Amino acid sequence: YPGFSEIIQGPWLMEQMKSQALSTGVEIISDHINQCNLDEYPYKLIGDSKTEYLADSLIICTGAQAKWLGIASEEKYKGFGVSACATCDGFFYRDKSVIVVGGGNTAVEEALFLTNFANKVTLVHRRNELRCEKILEERLIQNPKIEIIWDSVIDEITGTDNPNSVNGVNLLNVKTNKITKLETNEIIESKNIIIASGSSPIEIGSAKFDNKNILDSTGALEIDKVPETLGVIGAGVIGLELGSVWARLGSKVTVIEAMDDFLFMADKEIAKETLKDFKKQGLDIRLGCKLTSSKSLKNSVKITYETKDGSEDMEFDKLIVAVGRKPNTHNLFSDDSGVKLDERGFVSVDEFCQTNAANVWAIGDVVRGPMLAHKGSEEGIMVAERIAGKHAEMNYDLVPSVIYTHPEIAWVGKNEEELKNDSIDYKVGKFPFAASGRALAVDQSVGFVKVISDAKTDTILGVHVFGPSAAEIVQQALISMEFGASSEDLGLTIFSHPTVSEALHEAALAVNNEAIHIGNKRK
Question: Is the overall model pTM greater than 0.85, yes or no?
Answer without folding.
Answer: no
